[in-house]
Amino acid sequence: MLFNSFEFLLFLPVVFALYWFVFQRTLRLQNLLVLVASYFFYGWWSWQFMGLLMLSTALDFAYGFWVASPNKQKAKLFLWLSIINNLGILGVFKYYNFFATQFQEGFGLLGLHIDPLLLNVALPVGISFYTFHGMSYVFDIYRGQQKPVKSFVDYAVFVSFFPLLVAGPIERAGHLLPQVQKTRTFNYTQALEGCRLILWGLFKKVLIADTIAQVIDPIFAHYTDYNSPTLILAAVGFAFQIYGDFSGYSDIALGTAKLFGFELLSNFRFPYFSRDIAEFWRRWHISLSSWFKDYLYIPLGGSRAGTQKAVRNTFIIFLVSGFWHGASWNFIVWGFIHACAFLPLLLLKRNRNNTDTVAQNATLPSLKELWQMVTTFGIVTFAWIFFRADNLDSALGFLQGILSNWNNLGQVTGKSLLVLGASLLAIDWFLRHNERQLRVPNWQPFRFAIYFGMALAIWLKLGSEQTFLYFQF
Q1: Integer angstrom CA distances of residue 174 from 138, 141, 180, 194, 387
Q2: Which of 51, 74, 143, 258 is the most exposed place for a label (fewest CB within 10 A)?
Q3: Does the active-site annotation cover 325?
Q4: Chain segment 21-52, per-residue pLDDT in tens
Q5: 44 to 152, 201, 254: CA distances (angstroms)
Q6: Candidates 222, 325, 338, 433; catalytic one
């Protein structure tokens, strides 16, 4: 079920009413309702993979008890079994065909022909997210940071909570599980904040991201037919599309969770106002970045084991992050570009600079901050070309088109993208101190007029909804 669909606009108030007015008597009934609603939400989109979601949930629930064993050898054994199971599920459904075709091409270079069996199944929606939920839970128990949950329903809600089930944010057991296990009471202010976040998220997705997609999709599909300025505008447009699409999803997820008394982890903090790549990754897809830092980068030694290992670990984490997004070489190159951009900051020990908000006590950024933001955005946009392309050859062809098609300028397509992108940045600049508050003028009639106008525009665009980009991951 898509957030930007009429079905969800019916589903959400029904579940909300049952949650607060029918099942409010006991926490157990509320959690059971949330679990049933979450499975219904997932099954509406992909019912044939419901069994896989339940199996993954049940396995990690059981591993949690075994990993908590005082026998360290037994605990470590089951930790590795959990890792193998989770990565095995991901490997079969997400990466098997990629490795099979790579082996085929490798043997072909040696003059040997093999015909591997390929899987003709769709990628289960949200598989990368719910497997990471389960892995973090087991890791935290092994580290002694989390105790096994006795209630399967409580654990299943943690893994399958419908606002975050298919595209995050990637929650931690220590943050979400205590909220699942404690009694929740309706909070009007929290619910109102949730409604505002849902409205703003839908606005970014339906009116900005989807509108941009209509312009740039034909350009990326037929990039050889367009001149260099148009291709550059398309690349910039995709930077705004993926931000509006994914941060819009995250806003809706956070807002929906608030309606039910939950507070999820922030996933975006205005990443295009970053002054270097390190700051960008502290602000973009925060839950994934912190997951890789805590469960991969630090266990590998982080930056504490010397410069060489710090460089090695940096490339590992960015390459794995790229491969996490998709089983294709263009995603690996995307991760490699970010690693190369991060490397000078690491070597110069500047990767922990810029931890405050840009123009913290000013209305506008300084010229230095403006230059830093523009150059960082340029690097990120360049890397997005590889992320957006269907494959590595298409990405390289797109870049070749940018370099070679300056002689036939003609008509430049996509100028409207600059207006949409600038509008999004202007609103974000106004909100940049708090990503969870959609602030509007206090005069009530004007405020309601803005909300009503946004809601009406979204309503008129519903019915031709497009899936969220991160559903494919």
Answers
A1: 11, 10, 11, 22, 32
A2: 51
A3: yes
A4: 999 889 999 999 999 999 999 988 778 888 88
A5: 23, 21, 21
A6: 325
